[in-house]
Sequence to fold (360 residues):
Amino acid sequence: MRIAYLINSLDGYGAGLPVPMITGFMREWGADVHLFALTRRDGRMEPILERHGLPFDVHQGTVLQSFGWLREKLEAYRPTVLWTSLAHATLVGRYVGRKLGLPVVSWQHNVFLKRGNIVALWLTRRMTDLWVADSYCVADVTRTRFGLAAEDVTIWPLFSADPEAPRAQSAQPDEIFRFGSLGRLHPHKGYDILVRALAKIKRDMPGLAARFTVTIGGDGPMRGELEALTKELGVTNLILAGYQDAPKDFLATLHAYVQPSRVEGLCISAHEAMQAGLPAVVSNMGEMPLTVREGETGLVVPVGDVDALASALVRVVSDPARAALMGEAAHRHVNDRFSTARFRAAGAGILSKADALTRK
Fold:
């Protein structure tokens, strides 16, 4: 197989993060892979792709020009399969793939899509030959949203546990307890909810608030708003640390993880946190409540519930020994549920299906 892997951008967040892992497995399986990005955005993926030796091309024109650009690039590369990721790339890829007579495989990554994208994807749904969801929750939403049968959507979780990933250490007596989170500073991630929860704790339990910090590793359009809200509410234990080039190392410095997202799919960062041995406080969104076992590997709170989030943070900080036990359980659970063997088996099955499409 020759796989043209089409993505929205070379952004350093979200669905782009596991691209080297996915394409690396494709190449190991025997496929030739070339990446095509419809825009550069922050470009943080470029050095990562270069480090992995994955060839790529980036479009620099308008949205309308991307159709012609992609067709020209694919005619030169001559792929046997077009693999698309996210709504924009899928819509462009479906059209160009149909024009070139290529089978199209489409990733689905999120439970949330803009109304216009849902309509456009629904109208062109029959241009996808193989649907692949990155998690169980996204698979369910995809089947319902596009009227697909259970067997029409195959699941390949975009996370493979790394037994060699650095492990976090338990909080020591009298040590400041360190919560952390990884993600774009965007309304979807719910960090404004987190700020309000921290303000509530400071107001109701000032002594406890002084015993822990929360560090967010990420950047984005909400940075100014979060800084202003933090100042307005008098929150002093939140740190906006900026984009993290080494997320696994960042997670290893923490004692617990928090992800208060309003919108989410698999959420790789929450799974990487559990892999590091961190108890996870997460919202009831996407795959997170399916992975986090309430009271055993972490705590699950309703989406957007400031009081519930504050209460969960208090529970974890108030009992570091219990937090450490939950972290150990989280590490074991994630390494089992998302083992390398399961990742490879799922990937091999999907690549076999994709290969079969080229023989029709």
The radius of gyration is 21 Å. The first strand starts at residue 2 and ends at 9. The longest helix spans residues 320-337. The chain is about 45% helix and 15% strand.
